[in-house]
Amino acid sequence: MKPSSTMPRHRRPAARRGCLFGVAYYPEHWAENERRRDLRLMRRTGINVVRMGEFAWDVWEPAPGRFDFSLFDETIAALGRAGIRTLLGTPTAAPPRWLTLAHPEILRETATGHVIGHGARQHANLAHPEFRSACRRVVTALATHYAHNPQVIGWQIDNELHCIGSTDFSAETERQFQDWLRRRYRRIDTLNRRWGTRFSAGTYGAFDEVPLPIRNRPDGLAPHPAHLLDFHRFTSDVACQFCHEQASLLRAANPRWLVFHNGLFPHLDYWKLSAGLDTLGVDLYPGFGGAEPAAQLAWGSFKLELCRAHSGSFLVPELASGAGGTRDFLLETPEPGRMRLWAWHAVAHGADGIVHFRWRTIRFGQEIYWRGVLDHDSVPRRRWRELRRTAGEIASVTAALAGTVRDVRCGILVDFEADESHAAVLGRYPAPRHQAEHLLAELLARHQLAGLVHARDRFDGLDTLVLPSFGHVDAELARKLRRFVRRGGILLCTAGTGVRTVDNQALGITPPGPLRSLLGVTIEECGGFRVPRLEIAMPDGCAMPAPAGYEILRPIGSAVVARWRDLQAATVGTQPHPAHGEPALACRTLGRGRALTLGTWISSENAGAVAALILHRPLVEAGPMVAVSRRIARSRVVWFLLNHDARPQSVAGLPPGRDLLTGRHCDGRLRLPPYGVALLRSGRSLP
Fold first, then answer.
1. What residues contact residue 299 under an 8 Å CB cut-off, 6+ apart?
2. Are 265 and 163 contacting, i.e. CB atoms less than 8 angstroms apart?
3. Which of 226, 308, 447, 480 can bridge 350 by disulfide, Cβ–Cβ 3.0-4.6 Å?
């Protein structure tokens, strides 16, 4: 499922037939009699895949160069006899003690000079040659051993890169960062010019003079924004190279294997990472979104959409199946029906593989209270029954979902570069990612065909785009946006767009820089608030809050839609704010489309008002806790109707069709029980 020049990545269907559905399993944690009991119960559950091995380096290679595959060979064979295939994980996230004892220099180092000790995971520096050599050895051995095993269908590379630790500040990393800069800039005077090192006498005479940013700076002084941005780009490139190196070793052994990674964590460009993989995975624990179901729904939708934006069809290698937590926190146990609901929520957003974490709750280590499908006593209870029910339902709709993709018409743009650039220089204002999260939640609650789309992707099939404060807009993105609008699209850009270079310097031309002619505006003035001072007076008489700040727009070919209003205008003795009465929202017609400029940032306070600017007719009539989406193919439309509320919910305005889970006919209305799910196959296709 490699990126295609003829198909947007966010619309790629799964290359394989069928949906993977199963559990994460750790045979190294259990005695032989317990493993036999697990296999008997798994057979009864109806799952078709197990994911395992990602933390078993010391089992596979108990001593340097000495390998033992027997435990996993036996488990894989037993699973195969039960009709269950295996996804293995390369075990490089948890290097064994013999390796860190022999080579303590591979351990990661913090910015304050502390070495990360052995005892958990992600404690090795991905850039260190000795660690990379050991990783190649174990991955090559595993790939060679399992290359012709028909029960092994794919590999997860490492585990959640950058989840626990993303950066390293050792001398080896500093040397490699300097080499990376040398390749990027070639001449030190080019680096000095593009970074702007004359600020605070920061000019460098050679690449080997450039230190790591924030290293040994306990004073907390903000690092140079170009320096920090490049360090995070370097950190991402190291992880991508680490992952792609393993993918190459696996594909050399068996090119038919499904190769993926699971994550979505800081300082990692998943667009680059995904380019070397077959698909991407996101681990989903909705409890991290908050205690309330509405917050969990919004958080889960955003994570799933972020994965789809980078990968198209994707996997959920870990889905919460019980209370999760370690020493510092404990997420709530999902109520009856929610484990099934979360699985269908992932499928609705485009997932074609669900693996629950985990089969059985471990009895030792840091995760003894991170509950699995089974508790410590291995007795099958309601979570097991819910898993079995969902497995049967997934199997029953596989044919109907084959080749379908999630239907998205309104795309909110995301990009690693935009967020890293913003974080290095403008943390005071809402980040592009956070604006996307707020707006996506609002659009989905209003039952719009909305989703996330990567800025480097193609925009085919979309009718609306939102560009949330991308500080740097390169020539290629500007060209794509102009063509999108000319062909009939609607574009909405928010404050802070087009103000910086790729190196995080401020542009020397009036914002929004390369988008001035497309948007038909320039920015006359901008500022932020400690306490909100302005609001936008909309034409319908409503007011749009602007808690973060403002931009005064100057039309140059666009029409003013709304103006700023001073919240203290009626206060006696108060000087009017300079933005009072000035343009805050403008619209330019270009070709068959329209380009809107909003002079503020999207926040939780104004996301509803911003959404109203680009709303289309809602898909259905339903409350905001009913998640509604479609998966489509050329000849099929499958509607997903998911009630995330603890109360029954009604849905109206549906096309006539048949519920794939119950077989019942739907005449346009249905009632969903608490945490209820319906999959409606309608009789008409879509353009």
1. 286, 288, 289, 290
2. yes
3. 308
